Amino acid sequence: MEKKVKIIVTIGPSTNSEEAMLKIKDKGVDFVRVNMSHSDINYLKDTIALAKKVGLPFVIDTEGSQVRTGELGTSTIELEDNEEIKIYNHKIVGDKDKINLTPYSVVDQLEVGDLILVDFDTAILRISDTATINRGYVTARAITGGIIGKNKAVIIDPISNKKIILPTLSEKDYQSIQVGLQEGIGHIAASFMRSGKAVDEVRKATQNTMKIISKVECIDALENINDIIRKSDYLLIDRGDLSKEIPIEKIPLTQKMIINKAKKYGVGVFVATNLLETMIDHKKPTRAEVHDVLNTIVDGAGGLALAAETAIGKYPLACINMLNKIIKHAQQVNVEEFRDKEDKFVEKLEKSNYLLDFDMSSSLVAPHGGKLVDRMVKEMPSSKYLHSLPVIKLNESHRRDVEQIAIGTYSPIDGFMGKEDFQSVLDRMRLANGLVWPMPITLDVPEDQADMLLLGSEIALSGDEGEIIALLALQEKYTFDKSETAQKLYATDSLDHPGVKMIMGMNSVLLAGPITLLKRIRNEFKEYEITPKQARRLFEERGWEKVVGFHTRNVIHRSHEFIQMEALQKSNCDGLFVHPVVGKKKSGDFSAKFIIKAYDLMIKDFYPKNKVIFGTFSTYSRYAGPREALFTALCRKNFGCSHFIVGRDHTGVGNFYHPKASHNIFDRFPDLGIVPIRFDNVFYTKKEGRYMHEQEYPNHPEEDKLLISGTQARKMFENGELPPGWFMRPEISQLIIGAVKNGEEVFVKDV
C-alpha cells in the first residue's frame, strides 16, 4: 500500500551524517529540515549540501517571530516567588538579577501588569515598573517562581488582548531564505504565522518559488486561521508552542478542527511535537503516543514532523520505523466512513467558538452566567471618529466600573444596566433574566446632558484628563427614585450610611448600554492588578481546580491568617486568592499602599509556598452589607474562585446590619455557583496560644479570650504603640508604625 502520509525529519547531532541521511532516505522520509532557532547559517548550508548529496528534499524552517530569553552567565537562574528581576532591551549576559529578551523591541512594548510566561510557564513574571525603559530595562516580579534558561521561549500575556508587534521574519530567516533560493529549495516552513498578511510576506520574500507550510503555534494564528489556510500551501500544527498559549487539554480538539478546516480548502496539514518523544531515550514509545499518532492520521493529517526524536534522540532510525508502522496500521481504516460524523462534530465545535473560548476547557468554576465578558476594543476607532462623538466625563467610581465590566469581573454584565435590570436587582437581587445579581451597575448624568444624547448613538467616555477611554452604545435613558433606591439597596435611608449618602449625591438620569474599553486605566497599583483571564490562567498553571477567595480592605492581621488557612484546609481547596480592594474607601480604612506592602511581606516570608496568589481589586467599597457580600463573591467566581470567605459582618458598615446578615443571605441563593465559607468571631486564647473560631468553641471561657478591634488597633498605631504579636506579625506592625512616624498617610482621611 502506498504511503499517503508524509514524514518530515529534523536533522541534528543524531542524524547529521551522510550514513544517517542515506538510511533516512531508505525509510521513505519525504523531507528533512533543521531547527533554525538553535542553528546558524553555516550549519544550514552544510545540512542542505548533505541532503542534496543523498537526494533528500529539504525544507527551510524559519525561527520566526518568537520571543526568547537571551544569554546567561550560568546555565540557568532560579527565581523565588515575588522576587524582582530586570528585563533589558539590549544584549547583556543575564544573571539572577537581570535578563534580556529578543527581539529587543519586545521589551519596549511591555506595560505594567503584563504577564511574561517563560519556557512552558516554568516561571511566570509580571511587569511591575516601566519607568526605567529610557535606561534600557523594565522591572518584573515573579508571580510563580521557577527556572529560567537561555534561549527559552517566552509568551507575552497570551490570554489578554494585548498584541505585541513582531516581525514576521527575523534577520536570520531572510539569510536562510537567500540560501534556499540559491540552492533551489522548494518548501519553507514559516514559523509563527499570525495572519494571512504574514503568509503574503513570506511568499514575497521567497519570490513565490517555494511552497509555504504555515506553522500554527500561537493564539493569533487561531484568530486568523481561515485567512492563513486560504493563503498557504500547507499547514503545520506545532503542538508544543501552541500549548504554551492555550490550555494543553484543548490541543486534541483544536488539532481536529484545524485539520477539518484545512481539508475543506484542499490544504494538507502536518502535525509536529511530542509524537514519539519517549523514543528520545527509549527504544519504544508509550501506548499513549502510538494512540495519539494513529488518531492524528485518522483525523486527516497529511504529514507528521519529527523534532527532538531525530535531532538529538538516541534512536532516530527506530523512531522513523515506528512512525512508518503506525502509518501503515492507520491506513487500514477507511477514514471517509467517519467523515460525515466528524464534520457534524466539528461543526458543533465551530458554533461554540471552541478555538478561542478558553473557559470551555477550564477545570475551574465557570464564570457567572457561563462566559467571561470581554469588552476590550478589538480594533481601535480613528481619532477623527472619537473626537466627533459627544463626551461624558467619568468620575473615579465610574472609571473603575467601566474597566471591571470590560475585563469580565462583573460578568455577565456587559455595560451599564437598563431600567428592567436595575429594578429587578433592587427588588429581588436578580437580573431580569433570573440570574443572581445583587448590585446595580449604573452611569448617572445630569438631566440637561442626557437630553442632548440620542438613543442608538455611540457616546465617548473620558477619564480625568479628558482622554477618551471607552465607548457607550446608548440604548436607554431613565430616571430613578433616590430614596427608594437607597432603601432597597441599603435597607436604610439614613444619611449616616456612606452608601445612602452616595446615592443621594447621584445625578438624576441613568444611561444604559454595552461599553467598549479602549484603554486600560493607569493607576499606582497597576502592577498588582490581575484580570479574571489572567487569574484563571495562573490558577490553572499551578494545577489548581478549587480556589478560595479572600476579600478585604484592611492590612492583614493574625485572625485573617487563621481564617485564610482554615478556609483553605476545610474547603480542600488547592490555593488561596487574596484580593483586596484598592479603590475609593471611607475615612479610617487602611491605605491601599500598606495593604499591598503587608501582603508582599506575607508572600515573601510567611505564606506556604505555591499556595497563595495575590492581586488587587480595582473597585470601590459599596458598604452594602449582605448585598455586597454576594457581589464580592460573584466577582471572585468570575476570577475562578470556587469558594469564598465570608467573615462576621462582611462588608458591613457601622451598626446598620446584623453581624450574621452577610452569612444568612447566601442561604437565599442556592444557585449562586460559589460556596461561602462562613466565619464568626475569631479570638486568641492565652491558655492555648492560638486562634480559635467561636462557632467551634462556643463555651470557651470569656476571660481567656483576647480581641482587638480595628478601631483599637488604629489608635495604637497612631499613638506609636505596637499591637501585641498575637494580633499582628511584628514585621507588619513595624512597617505600619514606621510609616506613621514618617508622616505617611497610612489611613484614609478623605471620606
Structure report:
Helix content is 34%, strand content 19%. It is of the alpha/beta class. It has an eight-stranded parallel beta sheet with strand order 2-1-17-16-15-14-13-3. It has a seven-stranded mixed β-barrel with strand order 4-7-6-10-9-8-12. Strands 18, 19, 20, 21, 22, 23 and 24 form a seven-stranded mixed beta sheet that branches. Strand 8 and strand 9 form a beta hairpin. Helix 2 (41-54) runs parallel beside helix 4. The radius of gyration is 29 Å and the shape is globular.
Could you name the key traits of this structure?
single chain, 751 residues, alpha/beta, TIM Barrel, Sulfate adenylyltransferase, seven-stranded mixed barrel, 34% helix
What is the tally of beta strands? 32
**Strand adjacency order, main sheet:** 2-1-17-16-15-14-13-3
User: Can you give the helix content as a percent range?
Assistant: 25-40%
**What is the general shape?**
globular
Structural class: alpha/beta
Number of domains: 4
How much strand?
15-25%
Largest sheet data: 8 strands, parallel
Per DSSP, the total helix count is 26
Write the CATH fold name of the largest domain.
TIM Barrel
Head-to-tail CA distance between termini? 82 Å
What is the mean predicted local confidence, pLDDT?
Answer: 91
